[in-house]
Amino acid sequence: MEQRPSAAALWPDPPDLPLPAIMDQRWLDAVFLHWRIPESSAARFMPPGVAPDVFDGSSWVGLIGFRMKGAGIGRGPGIPYLGSFNEVNVRLYSREPDGTRGVVFLSLDANRLPVVLAARQAGIPYVWSRIRSWGTPPEDVGGGPSGYSVSRFRKGASSRFSVTPDPHSVTDDPLSLHVTARFGLHSRFQGRTIHIPNTHEPWALHKADLHELHDGLISSAGIDVDGPPESVLYSPGVRTQFGWPRVVTGARG
Fold this sequence. Notes:
The chain is mainly beta. 11% of the residues lie in helices and 48% in strands. It has helices spanning 7-10, 39-43, 113-121, 174-180, 217-220; strands at residues 23-37, 51-52, 59-73, 85-95, 101-110, 126-134, 146-152, 158-165, 184-189, 192-200, 206-215, 231-242, 246-252. It has a 9-stranded mixed β-barrel with strand order 1-3-4-5-6-7-8-11-12. The longest helix has 9 residues, at 113-121. This is DUF2071 domain-containing protein. It comes from Pseudarthrobacter polychromogenes.
């Protein structure tokens, strides 16, 4: 019987990170939910100079939750308290004319106000929210549902979702790689489009069953989705580093 290559074998080589690294983070207990949407729906959120990165004829919107652990400046130790928090984001996928791929965040909810205020100064659309996470430790995949609940202050949008990972499955399908093998984000800053690069090892991706979903974050961001997500994934997590931003050539707006 022909053996399929592993997800790590299919994982694209991340580009070299410009040095020095500006931040080191660990992302744990990651839940990925993705819906297919029209390319035109994603295009209106793209910063100047980038376009939707299409897969299987469609754009994709993701609802992703994870636990930030030990975020620190450069490659130094994690910052006490502020370096560890829960985050839930809504994101799209972008591509520059030269093929550089990225993520465009529509919103990022976090439960550390100083982090939110600092990120917003850099043009990243963070929102201060109450966020709770639950589940088994990352090393015990399949021990039960893992999920997140978000409640924005002042009666804003809310979300609650959880999945049950399959500990015996490791995903290697092209869609899973398309939405997780991302090495940077595109954003607007001071009238320009910037790309902030990052690098990390391949995610250990497990297929998962949707356990619960009551979401208002995607619609609050301006995207309409119908029915359950087409892709449901779980990962124990990765460690990542971020490099210095660069301006996307010729992109102003």
